[in-house]
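Q: Structure for this?
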Amino acid sequence: MDFFITAIILGLCLSVMGLGIFMSMKIFNIPDITTDGSYTLGAVITAILLLNNVSFFIIIPIVFIAGAIAGCVTALIHTKFKIDALLAGILTMTALYSVNLIILGRSNQPLINTQNIFSIRFFQNQINNSLTIVLIIILILTIILSYILKTDFGIAMRATGNNAQMVRALGVDDDKMKIFGLAIANSLTAFAGFLVAQYQFFADINMGIGIVITGLGSVLIADAFQKLFKLNSIIWQILMVIVSSVLFQLVLAITLSLGINPNLLKLITAVFVLFIVGITRFRKIA
Amino acid sequence: MIQLISINKTFNKGQATENNAINNVSLSINSKEFVVIVGSNGSGKSTLLNCIAGSILTDSGKIIFNEQHDVTSLKDYQRTIWISRIFQNPLIGTAPGLTVLDNFRLASIRTKSKNISVGINQNFIQKVKESLSTLGMGLENKIHQPVGSLSGGQRQAITLLMSVFDQSSILLLDEPTAALDPKSASVVMETANHLITSLQLTAILVTHNLKEAITFGNRIIQMHHGEIIKDLKNEEKSNLNNAEIFQWFQ
């Protein structure tokens, strides 16, 4: 049982990154893969500051700002140099690998015996306690994010990804909006790195490699659910991303617990995403 | 209201495809004037409209609004304090993934900053419903639907109402009915005409439609090869008949 709850907690931690991808891909319609770099950035900053006995309360804003800067760099390359968003993301991600390595100073850093966010005690049981902490964080983030997206500024953000020409005609600088958007997206991603590093008690320079697929997968699955159940409101879209991220990790956990060859894990992941996304497409044709 | 002082715009300068789209055009449009611009394809009508809106920045010359605001170097989103626009493509004026209500909310703060506060309240919803009911399309019952689920005619009509939902002084219409069926086209043009007169807007309509050119506006301009070749006002315009304008299109 603990095995599955562990998967759920990891899914919840990673759902914050899913929300970041949701912002960039669904709200702003920009395929941003700075993610691999900004996720690790969040983790290595957390690791190094925890080792220097900095309180995680102070680390949180630092991680958010660092992620936002990474997002700004990608957005500036994309909007000012008119370089394709995918390429801009790859450039930033590549550059961040060196930045992360310099920050961490080594390729792997264990965080045993550090006072971190999961040291807060609600329950004696370690796993229930961690689950509660992550749920509280997710709840706060969901409320903030769904509120922002409902405000006038949020409407302008959503419209930017939907119809850039229209928002310009309505007095919105769409380039500036995209910079804001990628900043928010990557600060969420960095925050996911913050959570996972503390949950797993280590930061690794390679922990972000391919992580963008996990986020993209949850957004795609959420998108499929949204179409299947016709859940169009913002709050449902956000909740679906979180649920999908957890589902994603659960499928991986179940696969492993069935004793399937771990080498097949990535193949099963891909088939799972394809299966969920495929259902909605099939229904449409039929 | 709008003053163009010898503006020029050349596309692909120095290349084989060089195109002198606007050639030393000077034009003064008074407040509350409703100007119709006609001309064949490539005559520079749309480019002129884009220069006024700021989507295209001119190579030389000056653009002045209200006798005092030099907007020559301002970008399109900075000129929206004065200008609202209706595009030829009915899909451009609205955001398809957002609800009708969200679209109206964004339009209602065109000249203002977009703050982190929720602006949609019961009052606002009522205002949007009242505005939509004037169209007689039953759209007031669809405010929570995504705009993408509506027809082109409905979307163009919504864009029109949105364009005056915040204070506006200049309305630019770039062939607003070109992609619409005759019935939707007439609803859109009648609504536009009503809004322009009742709100005393300064308006510019680019059109290829003879009937629209005759019926609407109190000034007509013909463009050819990036220059203004005819400019008729009030009585001169109302004295025009179909045959004469038809000649212009030859």
